Amino acid sequence: MWNFLNRFLKRKPRREYLYDEFSPQKSSLVIWVQRLILLIVLITIAIFVLSLNTMANAGEHTSGSYNVNINEISHGSLLLKNGESQQYQPLPLLNTDVSMFISGMIVRSHVKQQFINNSEQQIEAVYVFPLPESAAVDHMKMFIGERIIEGRIEERVAAKRTYEKAKKQGKKAALIEQERPNLFTNTVANIGPGESVTIEIQYLQLINFNQGSFSLRFPTAITPRYIPGKSNTESMNIYENGWALATDKVIDASRITPPVYKHPGRTNSISLNIELDAGFPLKKIFSRYHSITHSTNHNGNTQIQLSNKKTPADRDFELVWIPETGYAPKAAVFTETLNNEHYQLLMMLPPDSNMNNDQALAREVTYIIDTSGSMHGTSIEQAKNSLLMALDRLRLHDRFNIIQFNSTTDTLFYQSKIASFENILLAKQYVNDLQANGGTEMAPALRLALQNTETESYLHQIIFLTDGSVGNESELFDIISKHLGNSRLFTVGIGSAPNSYFMRKAALSGRGTFTYISDINEVSEKMTSLFNKLENPLMTNLSVNFDNIASAEILPQRIPDLYNSEPVILALKSKTPVNSIQLQGSRALSPWSASLNISQAKNSKGIASFWARKKIESLMDNIHGNVNKQKARKQITDIALKHHLVSKYTSLVAVDITPSSDMFTPLKKHKLAVNLPHGQNNHTQSREVFQRLPQTATNAELHFFFGCCLLILGLLSQLIHQASFRSKLKKWHLL
Amino acid sequence: MQKYFKNSFALILFFTGCCMLAQGSYIHAKAWLAQHLLEKTWAEIQQGDSRSKPWPWADTWPVARLVVPRLDINLLVLAGDSGRTLAFGPGFSFASVLPGTIGNSIISAHRDTHFSFLKDLQNNDEITIETINNKKTFKVRNTRIAHRDRASFTEQETTAAIHLVTCYPFDSIITGGTDRYIVSAIAE
Questions:
Q1: Where residue A503 sits, what CATH number does that domain have?
Q2: Chain B contact for A406, CB < 8 A?
Q3: A500 and chain B in contact, CB less than 8 A
C-alpha cells in the first residue's frame, strides 16, 4: 500500500513547478477551484444515481397492486366473495346501527349490520369488524324480511361445518367467528341479488372507571398491528407465541385509535344510539372524538346520539361521563344467579389517600437494562431514552440502581443509592455509555435485582427493559416467583418484535404490568403513563375474603396493586350466595380493610357472561405456559358453550330453515365455494397472519460505491496536481 | 516522508476510500467467516451439546441448515432476526415457528450477502431444511414483493411453510427500503 502510494507520489517532481507559467500562488488557487468543481460534479452524479434508484423503488411501489386481505383492512369493512375475480372485492356496507344500553357498570350493545346485495349474482359476504377487547359476544340474530333466526353457539369447527352445509343447500346462513379477542368475522351466505340481510350481534362490556370518570369505547377502526405467528408445541417450546393472545391485553388507546392508512371509497358510516342509566346525577357527559347530542328520555335516562347521522367509521368512539360532585360511587356490586350458581361483579374504589407527593411512599427502584446484541440498533436507543426519562422522574428520597446485562452483569452502584443530583448525573453518564453487544444472560441480573431489597419501608420496584429474546423462560419465571417478596416487577418491551409472551408472563409473576414500546416516538407517552402509575401506588397486597370462599372462584386470581384512583374489579362465582365481602390491603404501609354488605346487590343480567369472559381470558393467558393445551382448550370450549360466548374455539351460527327462492344449482354453488382462494395466496386456509419483517440490507454496497467514488476522486485530484498532466490538459485546451 | 504528502487532499480521499472499501468487505468477510464458525457449532449441537456457541459472546445459535441443491447454496439458519444476527447468517423470526415445523417460519437475510441467491430461485425449486432431528424438503410455490409492515402469511394448520425474506430491490445501494422480496416454499 505504502509502496504503491510512494511510487505514485514520486511521479510528481515538485520542481516542475519552476517551469510553470503561472506563479505557484495562482496555480494552487486554480487547482483548488477545479477540484471543487470536480467534486461538485461527482457529488451531483452520485446524488443523481441515488435518486434514480429511489425513483425506481417508488415506481415499483405504486405499480405493484396490493391485494385486499383481512389484515389490510383498517376499518370494519365488507368483502364480497366472488368466484370470477379470484379475490375478495370490497363492497360498501350500507348500514351499521349500534344501540347500547348502559346500566351501572355494564353495557349491552346491539350491533346491527345490514348487508345489501346490489349485484347481479348471489353472494357470500365476509365482514371483518372490531369490538372492544373485553367484549363478551353472546348473541346473534339474523333478520330476513320479517323472520328472525337466533344464532346458536357451537364449537368452531362444528359451527363452520353447519354453515358450509347450509351454504351448499342454498340456505341463508351467518357465522360469527373470533379472529382475535377484539376482531371478529361475520360471514353471510347466499344473499340473493337485490336482497338484504341484517345481522345483529350482541355483546356485553364492562365500563371503564378511572380517575373519577366513566368511559366507554366503541372501536370502529382496526389499526394494523403486529401479530406473531402461530407456534407449535412440538418445536422448541420456548418461543411459543399464540397470535390471538398477543392482542388480548392491549389497553393503550394509541394502538387502537385512528388507522394508519385508508382505502378511499370504502368508508362505512355508522349510527349510534346510547341509553345511559348511570345511577347517579351527571356533572358532565362528552365524547372525545365525535360531536354528540344528548337528552333525557321518559325513563329518566340519558339518551345520546351522534350529531352527524352519517359519521364515517374511521375512528373510535369514546363516551365519557363524570358524576356530580358528591355522587361519585365508592363501590358497586351486581349479581346474577344462573343454574344455582351465584355470580357477582364487584367494583370498589379505595378512599383517596389525599397524600401529597412528600408523603408518598419512598421507592427503591432497580432498573434492569438488556444490553445484549439483539438490542443493537434502535432498540437500545429506545431503552436508553426510556431509562433517561425514568431517572428524571426520581424524587430525592427515592433510592435507585441500574443493572445492565449481556453475557455478564454489571451494576451502576454496589448498592442502591439515593437519587441525589450527583448520583443521577452519574447514572445518566452510565446510561449514555451503554452499548448493545454480547449474549443474553438474564438470570443473574434478575437474581441480583430481586436480592437487593434489604431496605424496609421502601416500595421495591424493578423496571426491566428488554426485548426478551431468551431461551430459558421457565427458569426465569421460577426465579421471579421464588424471590419476588415485596418487590414488583414491571416489564417494558422494546423493539418491533419483542417476546411479549415472556414479558407479560414475567410481569404477571412479578405482580406488575407490561408496557410495550414499539417505536421510538412512543417512548415518552408510554413511559409517562407507566411512571404516573409507579409513583402513586395506592394499595398493595390486596386480598379478598368471604364465607365459603373455598367453594368460590375469583377472577383475577391474583389481585393487582392499585394505582392512581383505580378501582378493584372482581368477578366471582360461588355455590352459595355471598352476603358480605371483606377486602384487605395495605396503603403506605398501614393496613386498610373494608367490608361490603352485598345482600342488597342489584340483580343484573349478564354478570355470569362477564365472569365467563374473564375466565376464558385467564385460561387463554395460561395456555402459553401450560403444556397441557388440550385441557385448557376443552375448558374454554366448555365454559364458552355453557355461557353462550364466542371465543377462539367457539362460534355463533344461524341457519335459515328454507332455502333461498332464487337458488342456483347446487353444483355451481359448490364450485363457487371451492374457487375462492383467499387474498393473494393459493392455499385453501383462510386465516392470514401479519408479520413485520426485519431490515435486510447491509450498507456494504453503499460503502463500496462511495469507496470507489472517493478513490476515483483521489486519483483525479492527484493527476491534476501533477504538472505534466496539467500541461497535457492545457495542450488539449481543457484548462 | 513529508514530501510525499504534499497533495494531502488526494491522500485523504484515498484513505477514506480505502476505509470504505474495507468496511464494505468487512461485512462480506464477517458474513462468510461466521458461516464457517457456525459449521463447527452446528456439528456440536447435533452431537447433543445444546449450549455450544459459535463464539464466546454470541447471542444466537444455529437452528437449521438450509440447502438449495440447484444453486449450490448451503447456509446455517440462526435463531432471531435482529440486525446483529443477520450479519452472521440468515435468521428465523422468533415470532414465527422453527423452520421445518408446522406453521409459518420466516427466515430473513441480507440481500447482498446470504440471500443474494433469492432472485435466482424459481417456482418448484427444492429447498431442504435440516434441523436437529429431522429433514424436510420444500418446494418454492410463490414469490412476491410486499411492504415490510404489510406482509401477511396464510396461517398453516397442517403443513410446514418457510418464507425467505430479503430486501428489494436487489441491486439498490440504499439501505432502509420498505419493500421485501418473499419466497414462500411449502413442505412436500
A1: 3.40.50.410
A2: yes
A3: no
Topology of domain B3-187 in CATH is: Sortase; Chain: A; (2.40.260)
Interfacial B residues in 79-108 facing A (CB < 8 Å): 79-87, 91, 93-98, 101-106, 108
Taking CA–CA distances from B29, the nearest residue in chain A reads A700
Q: Domain boundary at A582, A603, A624, which? A: A603
Residue B187 contacts residue B137 (beta carbons within 8 Å)? yes
* Whether A531 and A553 share a structural domain: no
- Residue A272 — pLDDT band, cuts 50, 70, 90? confident
Q: Are A127 and A93 in contact (CB under 8 A)?
A: yes
Please report the pLDDT score of residue A235 as a whole number: 25
Residue A31 covered by a domain: yes
What whole-number distance in Å separates Cα of residue A73 and Cα of residue A679? Answer: 12
A518 and A545 in a single domain? The answer is no
Instruction: Choose among B59, B146, B153: nearest Cβ to A373.
Output: B59
How distant is the Cα of B62 from the closest Cα of chain A, in angstroms? 13
Average pLDDT, stretch A3-25? 48
Q: Do A453 and A374 share a structural domain?
A: yes
Contact B155/A694, CB-based, under 8 Å?
Answer: no
Contact call for A688 and B112, based on CB within 8 A: no
Pairing of strands A317-323, A282-287: antiparallel
Per DSSP, the three-state class of B133 is coil
- Taking the C-alpha atoms of residue A444 and residue A470, their distance in angstroms, rounded to an integer, is 13
What are the start-end ranges of the E strands in A671-718?
A: 688-690
Query: What is the per-residue pLDDT across A538-568, written as a single tens digit (0 to 9) for each?
Result: 677 788 888 777 778 888 877 777 776 677 8
A581 found inside a domain? yes
Name the DSSP letter for residue A248. T
Q: Tell me the DSSP string of A221-268.
A: B------PPP--TTS-SSS---HHHHTTT---GGGTSS-S---TT-PP
Tell me if A451 is assigned to some domain.
yes
Do A376 and A436 belong together in one domain?
A: yes
Structural domain including A718 reads 2-61+703-731
Helices and strands (DSSP H and E) totals, chain B: 2, 9
- Residue A130 falls within a domain, yes or no? no
Nearest by CB: B179 against A60, A694, A698: A60
Q: Looking at the partner chain, which of B4, B83, B146 has a beta carbon nearest the beta carbon of A377?
A: B83
User: Is A235 at the interface with chain B, CB within 8 A?
Assistant: yes
Contact A690 B4 (CB under 8 A): no
Which residue ranges make up each domain of chain B? Answer: 3-187
Is B125's Cβ below 8 Å from some Cβ in A? no
Question: pLDDT tens, A364-391?
Answer: 899 999 888 778 777 888 888 889 988 9
B30 and chain A in contact, CB less than 8 A: no
Is this complex's ipTM strictly greater than 0.85? no
Residues A484 and A434 occupy one common structural domain:
yes
What is residue A244's predicted lDDT score, i.e. its pLDDT? 24
Q: Do A698 and B174 make contact, defined as CB atoms within 8 angstroms?
A: no
User: A16 versus A37: which is more confidently predicted?
Assistant: A37
Which of A230, A696, A703 lies at the smallest CB-CB distance from B20?
A703
**CA of B97: which chain A residue's CA is closest?**
A231
Chain B residues whose beta carbon lies within 8 Å of the beta carbon of residue A379: 82
Question: Do A346 and A493 have their domain in common?
Answer: no
Task: Say how many domains are in chain A.
Answer: 3
CB contact A536 to B (< 8 Å): no
Chains A, B: CB contacts under 8 A, how many? 286
User: Do B172 and A706 lie within an 8 Å CB cutoff?
Assistant: no
Extended strands (E) in A660-734: 688-690
Domain boundary among A535, A553, A569: A535
Which set of grid coordinates corresponds to residue A69?
Answer: 386481505
Is the Cβ–Cβ distance between A608 and A643 less than 8 Å?
yes
Range from A472-486, A511-525, A657-671, B35-49 carrying the lowest mean pLDDT: A657-671
Give percent of chain A with pLDDT exceeding 90: 7
Is A47 an 8 Å CB contact of chain B?
A: no
pLDDT at B114 over 50: yes
- In order of A437, A450, A453, the CA distances from A367 in angstroms are 18, 11, 13
What the block records as the C-alpha cell of B98 is 422453527
Whether residues A424 and A505 fall in one domain? yes
- Is pLDDT of A621 > 80? no
Indicate whether A499 and A557 sit together in one domain. no
